[in-house]
């Protein structure tokens, strides 16, 4: 197993007493590839609950990178949905890495970024940072929107099965 960076993170906020393991895959100006996401998957299995960071100096992700990392992020969301140990997938681009204040950088960038800048005080929480960066860079819905959609799909499947069982029984 390999990560470009592994570190411990302890938020300096009231009430948060946890220390978290963070594994990062770092790129200068080159791009994320399948082998990068595969290594991160291995680390997620070996270190359940560790955060997985994809950091690049590039300002944007290419569509091929988005697809690879989105797949991993959704897989980790599904683990969380099923109450299994999961990892928060966080994306950091040059926008965040070259910033002294992410919220201020996002506010200046405008658009969708500006919406997230308003809650930037929460970005010390890994789940909040993961959710925001997944929406910004992977075009995923918020975790709670996604969760509600998944629960609705589950309810619909159960209703179909129940209707099929009742139809077969009569």
How would you describe this structure in keywords?
170 residues, alpha/beta, 7 helices, 4 strands
Question: Summed up, what is this model?
Answer:
This protein is of the alpha/beta class and 170 residues long. Helix content is 53%, strand content 14%. It has a 4-stranded mixed beta sheet.
Report the radius of gyration as a whole number of Å: 18 Å
Biggest sheet strand line-up = 1-2-3-4
Spans where pLDDT lies below 50 across 5 or more residues: none
Helix tally? 7
How many runs of DSSP E, i.e. beta strands? Answer: 4
Helix content: 40-55%
N- and C-termini, Cα separation: 56 Å
Estimate what percentage of residues fall within beta strands.
Answer: 5-15%
Q: How are helices and strands ordered from N to C? A: EEHEHEHHHHH
Question: Average pLDDT, to the nearest integer?
Answer: 92
Summarize the main sheet: 4 strands, mixed
Coarse shape: globular
- Specify the structural class: alpha/beta
């Amino acid at each position: 197993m390999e990560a470009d960076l592994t570190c411990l993170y302890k938020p300096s906020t009231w009430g948060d007493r946890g220390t978290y393991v963070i594994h990062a895959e770092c790129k200068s100006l080159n791009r994320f590839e399948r082998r990068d996401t595969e290594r991160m998957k291995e680390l997620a299995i070996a270190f359940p609950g560790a955060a997985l960071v994809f950091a690049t100096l590039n300002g944007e992700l290419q569509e091929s990178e988005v697809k690879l990392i989105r797949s991993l992020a959704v897989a980790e969301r599904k683990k969380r949905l099923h109450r299994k140990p999961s990892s928060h997938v966080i994306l950091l681009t040059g926008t965040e890495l070259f910033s002294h204040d992410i919220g201020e950088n996002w506010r200046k960038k405008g658009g969708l970024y500006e919406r997230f800048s308003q809650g930037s005080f929460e970005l010390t929480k890994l789940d909040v940072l993961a959710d925001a960066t997944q929406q910004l860079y992977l075009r995923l819905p918020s975790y709670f929107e996604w969760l509600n959609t998944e629960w609705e799909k589950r309810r619909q499947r159960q209703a179909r099965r129940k209707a099929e069982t009742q139809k077969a029984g009569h």
